[in-house]
Amino acid sequence: MSKKLGIIGGMGPKATSIFFSNIINKTVATNDREHLEMIILNDTKIPDRTAAIEGGEYQPLLNQLISDVRILESLKVDNIAMPCNTSCFFIEELQSQTNIPIINMVEETAKHIANISEKQNVTVGILATNGTIKSQLYTNALQKYGIKCIEPDDVLQDHVMNLIYNQIKKNGHGNISDFNYVLDRMIKYGCNYVILGCTELSYFNHNYFISDYCIDALEVLTKVSIELSNKEYKKTLVLQN
Fold this sequence. Notes:
It contains 11 helices and 7 strands. By secondary structure, the chain is α/β, with parallel strands linked by helices. It folds into 2 domains: 5-103 and 221-228, Rossmann fold; 105-217, Rossmann fold. The two termini are 33 Å apart.
């Protein structure tokens, strides 16, 4: 029997729309009724996650997220997905407030990399917001599997934040040349894989053919969400132009 997926979206809206499109495109279905039943709560009132982590003011953000969880509980969802990497910083507190499983995209992405690397020595680069970098979300998750991590230096991190905030969040699109510059620098640092650890960066995977070095955390969340909903994940690539 299929299960209903609840989505806490709005972090940001572009990333939420890509996640929804991913699920539609990657679910094996021959008609409308074979697709997932989803409740998307596109809550744009959620405070900025990086600002909360850097400023140490968590409670307004937590209160909003807990309120969203309560709404999804009332709508009888079976699992909850949050298409926002930085929000995973708060996932333990959120999970303590509900019996509905909340999918941790950071942990699932680390597990995915551990599986595809087949326990070989690999180095993984992390492209993410300042909040995700500061909180060491990916570093801690990957270190459980003995995987070495590399974060951008301060100058390159400014380029990453520009892609996320000044391009995709602000304008709804990003410059692929700017993205490739950041990616090339990480590969030169010695990375075998580079995590797109901010869902805004998934814009590039959604709209372009990008390097095989890239591991899109939103794509991992898509796969896990489909499978936990008792549906089949379509392995073939569907590129949106």
